[in-house]
Structures are given as C-alpha cells and as structure tokens.
Task: inverse folding
C-alpha cells in the first residue's frame, strides 16, 4: 500500500497522518515553510511564525481532512514520501517509544500491557489518552503525544488500554531541592468559566497543553518565551471568558519549573494583558 493510501485509511479511522521524507523528517508542505524558511526548527517538529492559513508542517500538518490530504499542495510530498507518521495527541493517544531491548524489558516490568508495535530497534507501546510529549524520560524511552509525531508502523498487536498514571508520572520532573518561596501567588482569570464562543473546549485544552510544552522546551530566552506564550494564549482566549484559574495556574507552574519567579510570571502576564488592551 502506498503512503497516501495508508494516510487515507488512518484519517478515516480518526488518526491524523502526515508524510515523512527520508530520515523520518516531515516535509515543508508549502513554499513558505520549505527547508524551515518560516523559522520552524530544523527538524520541523515545531511550527514557525509563518503566514500560512494554518500550521502546515511537522506534527501540526497532521490532519484527518481528506480534502487537505489529497490536495495538490500535498501531492508531491506523498509521491516522494518514504514513510507515514501520525500525531498521537490529535487522536487522543500516547506512544511510549522504547528505542532498545533494555527499554522494552523495562516496560515489560513496569508498564501495564497495551497495544504494541515493533520498530527497527524496539517497540511502540500505545495507550488511549493524550499527555504532553517528553523525550528521554528514561534510557531509550521517549513519550510522544501532543505536539509530536510518531512513525506509523502498522496496527501492531494486543489490546489498547487507558493511559496509566505511571506513564503520566514519567513526564513529571523530580521535585526541586530548593524550598519554594513563601510568597502567595494569586492569579485571576479574566472572566471565570464559560465555553469559548469561537472555539471548542477541546481546542482550549489543546492550546493550554501546547503552551505548557512550549515553555517547558525553551532552552534559552526563557523569560521571552514565557511572555510570548502568555501573549499567544491571551490573544486566542483572553476575551471570550474561557480561561479559568486552573488554566492560568498551569501556565505559571510550567514557567516556574523553568526558573521563572512568581513575580516574573505575574509581570509577564500583566504585560501581555496590557499589550492586548485587556
């Protein structure tokens, strides 16, 4: 079966696919994004600040829209595709990527059984439920779910089970040995509760998860990343009353885990609100 047929079958089952070129790297699916010209990372896992109608490369290109998958814009990519990948988080799935025999043995001792797929060097253990993606949670162990892609290697074997807490716990950093500040942090939502008038609740949840990961993966200029992430969240949801204390606290927690102080978090949030006139 050719890559496009595989992708169409995945899309029909609710799993958003995307084409991979040699080296298991996604294509740039429009001229503006070819070779990361738009500013995305070289491995094209993260969309850059392009002016395309929607994110069009990396994990963000994955879609179940058959019209998009079969469009002329994607035709060359499918002709040249060396493999097919999919966005696990977009299908409410999490892949525990076990990259060597030792990692597979560890999973057999530690994780609940679920659907497994053989890979070149190990196995993918696939669970029902999404979480943030984290690399190197163990020796040869990566978690691929939201804002990530996994190679499609077939349906595998076994029965898929619900995402267990033991896998979610792998993404949690070890507690810091530094005592937290005693300063109380109070964050007020713009308008508590309510459903986005312009987006679905699922879109909001995905946006918050993506924002958390964007902060978590910042390797430099953390303060700038935090501010820009807060600005993006407020731009999308700051006026529709959907942000709650819980959502905002999640963003602050992610920022503080990267070393931002409560005061800096509050300042970044306030500055973002001020810039948007909120």
Result:
């Amino acid at each position: 079966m050719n890559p496009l047929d595989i992708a169409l079958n995945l899309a029909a089952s609710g799993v958003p696919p995307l084409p991979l070129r040699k080296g298991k790297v996604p294509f740039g699916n429009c001229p503006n994004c070819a070779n990361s010209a738009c500013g995305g990372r070289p491995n094209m896992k993260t969309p850059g600040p392009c002016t395309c109608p929607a994110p069009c490369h990396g994990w963000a290109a994955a879609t179940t829209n058959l019209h998009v998958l079969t469009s002329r814009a994607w035709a060359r990519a499918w002709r040249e595709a060396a493999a097919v990948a999919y966005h696990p988080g977009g299908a409410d799935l999490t892949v525990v990527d076990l990259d060597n025999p030792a990692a597979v043995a560890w999973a057999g001792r530690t994780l609940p059984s679920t659907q497994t797929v053989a890979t070149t060097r190990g196995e993918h253990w696939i669970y029902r439920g999404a979480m943030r993606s984290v690399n190197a949670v163990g020796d040869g162990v990566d978690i691929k779910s939201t804002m990530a892609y996994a190679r499609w290697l077939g349906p595998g074997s076994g029965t898929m089970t619900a995402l267990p807490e033991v896998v979610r716990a792998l993404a949690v950093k070890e507690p810091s040995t530094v005592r937290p500040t005693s300063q109380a942090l109070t964050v007020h939502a713009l308008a508590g509760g309510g459903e986005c008038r312009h987006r679905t609740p699922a879109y909001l949840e995905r946006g918050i998860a993506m924002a958390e990961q964007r902060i978590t993966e910042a390797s430099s200029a953390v303060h700038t990343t935090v501010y820009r992430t807060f600005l993006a969240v407020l731009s999308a949801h700051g006026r529709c009353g959907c942000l709650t204390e819980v959502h905002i606290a999640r963003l602050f927690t992610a920022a503080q885990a990267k070393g931002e102080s409560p005061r800096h978090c509050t300042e970044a949030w306030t500055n973002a609100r001020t810039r948007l006139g909120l």
